[in-house]
Write a structure and sequence with these properties.
104 residues, mainly alpha, 3 helices
Length: 104
């Protein structure tokens, strides 16, 4: 039996990394219809990073009941630990992958 609570509490960041890579791959496949493969991969990685930033920014805004226009949501150093560990590990992996594909 898998202890999903333990995984959620201790490895949530890994799930976000996997989700980001899968999301980037799906977007890259769609972009490959219009762009060369390397550019499509870079577009997919950028899309996934932007998605995670937007999602965690929205979660922060909701958690602190921030009134519009939500500009203070961009102050990522004010996010709580869970929001930081959801965004930054995935963002760093996506950034590293984008450097890898860009340099080829």
């Amino acid at each position: 039996m898998i202890d999903w609570t333990y995984l959620q509490q201790n490895f949530d960041w890994l799930g976000h990394i996997i989700e980001a890579i899968v999301m980037a791959a799906i977007f890259a496949l769609a972009a490959a219809l219009l762009y060369e493969r390397r550019i499509a991969i870079l577009l997919g990685l950028a899309f996934a990073a932007g998605h995670f930033h937007g999602r965690e920014k929205r979660d922060y805004e909701i958690s602190v009941d921030m009134p519009p226009p939500h500009l203070d949501g961009y102050l990522m150093w004010q996010w709580n630990w869970d929001q930081m560990t959801d965004f930054w590990p995935a963002a760093l992996v996506l950034l590293a992958l984008s450097f890898l594909f860009y340099r080829r």
